Amino acid sequence: MKVFVTGADGFIGSHLTEKLVKEGHKVKALSQYNSFGFNGWLETIPKEILNEIEIVNGDIRDCHFIRNVSKDQDTIFHLAALIAIPFSYVAPNSYIETNITGTLNVLEAAKLHNISQVIHTSTSEVYGTADYVPINEAHPLKGQSPYSASKIGADQIAYSYYSSFEAPVSIIRPFNTYGPRQSARAVIPTIISQIAAGNEMIKLGSLTPTRDFNFVEDTVNGFFSALGKEQSFGEVINVGSGFEISIKKLVEAIAESMGKKVTVEEDQQRLRPKKSEVERLLACNKKAKEILDWSPKYAGREGLIQGLGITADWFQQPENLQRYKTDKYNI
């Protein structure tokens, strides 16, 4: 199958691209244009896989570009997005242009070219602080940050193309994904990279929120399981582990798995505005099991510890750790 992956240069996108190639698909990968010719995490995958990928450089916000590069494709996995929540407070318009307009561009291109399926990426942040748990797909949506509001808008645009034009759109809603290659704007790489750099005092934001962490292999398998599944058209499907842990307990688990003792200092600049913090997320993944035949391999506390071990091992490799500025907070 000819598959176009937007956001292929990112964390989840690079892992998904790698799996698609291994499964025998012909992949065209969109990497955001820059003058350095840098293709993000795609540059770190094995050469024998990289050589099988057609990399195109461009911008998801350019409708003409997206129409041209998506021609003759069978399926689009749409992962391109701005995702750093703190930066959405600083530059909200860029999130609207990238996440909403970018999604519109993909849908219009798919409509024009009669593409067989668009698998659109949502996020658990659209739920805001849980009204009830586990959170199923009928849970109310709350834009507690400009980022989450932009993703709600993108999801609704995607659904509108299904309901208005019978577009073959599947909406996959991953909960907090972690694993090798993740940026330090996320909490698990923040903790691991600081410990790996030898810090005994690590800086974090709020320790009370709980999250449902999903190892990247499970998230990628969730996306892959949607490929060719017509019963997923017009559906929003959670991909989450079904296990929650507080950030405080998470720090303890990571430190234990790395054989270190650490203390935590609250860093004010890492705190979200009070009403913007999402206090609790816990996925109901029943729908994913029913429609996608998907279930998490790294489930429960035991699965989390296993995934954290793999992630910590990757970060502790010098060639990987040197990519991270552990002494600096990047929003």
Descriptive account of the structure:
The protein has twelve helices and 13 strands. It has a seven-stranded parallel sheet, sandwiched between helices. The protein has helices spanning 11-22, 47-50, 63-69, 85-90, 92-113, 146-165, 187-196, 216-226, 247-257, 286-292, 300-315, 318-321, and strands spanning 2-6, 26-32, 54-58, 75-78, 117-121, 169-174, 176-178, 201-204, 210-211, 213-215, 236-239, 245-246, 263-266. The longest helix is centred in the N-terminal third of the chain and has 22 residues, at 92-113. With 331 residues, it is an alpha/beta fold. The protein is 39% helix and 16% strand. Helix 6 (146-165) links the parallel strand 5 (117-121) and strand 6. Helix 7 crosses helix 11 (300-315).
The residue-averaged pLDDT reads 97
Q: From N to C, what is the helix and strand string?
A: EHEHEHEHHEHEEHEEEHEEHEHHH
β-strand amount: 15-25%
Q: Strand order, biggest sheet? A: 3-2-1-4-5-6-11
Largest sheet: 7 strands, parallel
Number of helices: 12
Helix content: 25-40%
What's the number of extended β-strand segments? 13
Q: Which outline best applies?
A: globular
Radius of gyration: 19 Å
Oligomer: single chain
How far apart, in Å, are the first and last alpha carbons?
A: 37 Å
Unreliable spans are none
Concise summary:
It contains 12 helices and 13 strands. 39% of the residues lie in helices and 16% in strands. By secondary structure, the protein is an alpha/beta fold.
